[in-house]
Amino acid sequence: MTFAFALIVQQYAFSVYDEQLYVKSSRVLYLSSSAIEKELERLEQLSFSIITDTQIQSQLKSIATSDSDYDRLTLRKHMVDRLLTYVGSEPSLYSIHMIDAAGAQQDVGSLVPIQAGKRDVILRLADNAEGQARWTFPDASDPALILARQIRSYSGTMFDLQDIGTIFMRINMERIVHELGAGEGDLIVTSGPDVIYPSQPHFDPALIQSSITSETGYFIKEVQGKTYFVAYNRSTATGWTYLNVTPFNQIFKQIVLIKEIVIGVFILIFAFAILWGIRFSRGLTRPIENLIARMKLAEKGNFAEANILAGDQEPPAMDELGLLHRTFRLMVERINDLITENYASRLLIKETEFKALQAQINPHFLTTRWSPSTGWPKSTSRRKFRKWCRRWRFCSAIRSA
Question: Per-residue pLDDT tens for 220-275?
């Protein structure tokens, strides 16, 4: 019962500890997702700063209204120089791409060829957003997260909001997650069925979407034969879901080891207690069984064997059972002594009775005696003397017996 109670308490303590770990993991994920969200908001604000840059606004307007190819080429060169200042100061950006009103694209930074179909999708999303930011998620051809928005014209306080171009920025999501993400586990960012990060997750996040039932939480899920601890948080700003996926045995390796050690120690203590209890109980029952055996011998009248210790038996201990053994031995010895004394007394009584009988018999057979002064009686013949001697020897034999 003690072992079971201790084991239940230990399991309860570990469950509370696991609960605290789960809560802490969820909080760490929340902080990480918040930091990533703020970084993405900052980059979104950077895109707004670029499209509202007075120099870029002026250059895009001039390109839209100029008929000279040379002037447009010069303006585009100056615009590229201006964009370089933004790319060089932002390590989270792969590149910046600017498309002017004439359809020419200016690329700055670490360039990756963008497929024509994907480019058309980006432009269409930007046009439909009417100046707001739109995101295009990574794919097999490009691991970058792309932010695109339409550029509208303005001058001072005058907002004519004419379409003068489109900008899209390729964001290094890998770097952002590495710097701001959770240290343990793999971070997965999804937007509905689309995977934002990483480009190639360990498993399809759609397999665990059914377990996401609230804005934030955690659960343990077995996916493709492996058990994962998943903490999740859904962003209210973008609607993205941030998942921190950790192999269960990895994050709880030390805890599982401690649990196994504690259970092993409890089992050893339990086995030791059982063995010690058996030995202790045998130490109590063995002397009692021995005493019962002696009592049975005494019951049969065999007091001698009841009072003799076996060769392999230790002397009685100085405890209650030892006192009981010694008292029983003293009782057996006293009874044996009393029996011996009684037997000797009865023999003495018999002998006394026998002597009294002998004393009665002797005068009956010896009617005359020889006297040194008078000699043999005259009536005594030699034959009678022999008969008297035989009788005397018979009485002597009886007396000796």
Answer: 888 887 888 888 888 887 888 988 888 777 666 677 777 788 888 888 888 898 89
User: Distance between CA 245 and CA 201 in Å, rounded?
Assistant: 10
Q: How many other CB atoms are found less than 10 A from the CB of residue 146?
A: 22
Distance CA 212, CA 232 (A): 8
Question: What global pTM score does this model have?
Answer: 0.60
DSSP-based three-state secondary structure for 268: helix
Taking alpha carbons only, the member of 120, 176, 116, 117 closest to residue 144 is: 176
Q: How far apart are CA 73 and CA 63, in angstroms?
A: 9
- At 169, the pLDDT band (50, 70, 90 cuts) reads very high
- Phi and psi at 223, nearest 5°, equal -130, 125
Tokens found for residue 62: 């001039």
Is residue 19 helix, strand or coil? helix
Phi–psi pair at 251, nearest 5 degrees: -75, -30
Which segments of 144-252 does DSSP mark as H helices, in order? 173-180, 248-251
- DSSP one-letter code for 209: G
DSSP conformation letters of 64-76: HH---HHHHHHHH
Amino acid at 382: R
Are the CB atoms for 75 and 66 separated by under 8 Å? yes
| Separation between Cα atoms, residue 191 and residue 176, nearest integer Å | 17
Structure tokens at 312: 């392999």
Place of tokens 């029983």: 328
The answer to whether 195 and 205 are in contact (CB under 8 A) is yes
